Amino acid sequence: MISIVGLGTAASAIAAKFEGISNYQVYYLNDKIEKTHKYNFKLEKYDTPEEYEQHIPDVRKTFKSLTERVQFFVTGASMSSNYCLGILEQIKDKEIDVFYIKPDTELLTGLPKLMENMVFGVLQEYARSGLLRSVTLVSNANLENTLTEIPIKTYYDTLNTSIFSTVHYLNYFEFTEPEIGQVSRPSEINRIRTIGMLNIKNLEEKWLFDLDMERDLCYYICINENRLATEGGLHRRIVDMLKKKPKNAFRRISYAIYETPLEDFGFCVAHTNAVQTQKTLDSLETE
């Protein structure tokens, strides 16, 4: 059982996608909740980040049934993200994977930009220090480019569904024996990560965040059951494509192949120990 926590309205919408699946226990923390009760906590709204930091809610009663494994979703630049560090401190005895959904920062200014920059950096430092099991970075801009044409009416629901599906499959892979191959356990220091959607034909990655200094790359490849049963030489072709990937003493590659009744698909998870910085036009011009 994995506890899913959505902090804020946007992150709660992602968490809601996990409802109804028996392997998950879903918690919502946002200011739209009418009343605090089991699995739901109503957050107060304030005008400044300082007020949020001065009024960190005590969520220990709501989280009394929290499982040992926690997946915590938070979106950057939301006012509720100011609660993030104080709430994580209250559940630091758990194994916590944070999923940080990064907005398009090129369009952020003033206070939201400063807030996003602070939370983005501190969560990575928390992961590096071992306070978090991992922090997974997902850029809304990258995700939109991956999904291509998204209608405005269903924009956020489409993004949220894609994030849910990706995380759910990665959880499935963790507890499922592959047909062949074995994904290596990343180094203990490589706790900052992102996810890439795979084109199975050439194993090209479409990254959900542009990660610097990739260290451990883990390929999760799902092949239709009929192909697995009938197509000779498939494993060799996949391995040959992986061998052509750039690698060195610090950049390791591992893979696992799983059966699916669906069309072929896959993911790659890239891990690093390097804190990712904000990429802006100004910073790129000075490099």
Question: What's the SSE blueprint?
Answer:
Elements: E1 2-7, H1 9-15, E2 24-30, E3 40-42, H2 49-54, E4 69-75, H3 84-90, E5 95-102, H4 110-128, E6 134-139, H5 140-147, H6 155-174, E7 180-182, E8 192-199, E9 204-207, E10 216-224, H7 225-230, H8 234-243, E11 252-260, E12 265-272, H9 281-286
Please give a structural write-up.
With 287 residues, the protein is an alpha/beta fold. The chain folds into two domains: 2-169, 3-Layer(aba) Sandwich (Rossmann fold); 190-272, 60s Ribosomal Protein L30, Chain: A (2-Layer Sandwich), CATH 3.30.1330. The chain has nine helices and twelve strands. It has helices at residues 9-15, 49-54, 84-90, 110-128, 140-147, 155-174, 225-230, 234-243, 281-286; strands spanning 2-7, 24-30, 40-42, 69-75, 95-102, 134-139, 180-182, 192-199, 204-207, 216-224, 252-260, 265-272. Strands 1, 2, 3, 4, 5, 6, 7, 8, 9, 10, 11 and 12 form a twelve-stranded mixed beta sheet that branches. Helix 1 (9-15) links the parallel strand 1 (2-7) and strand 2. The longest helix has 20 residues, at 155-174. The chain is globular.
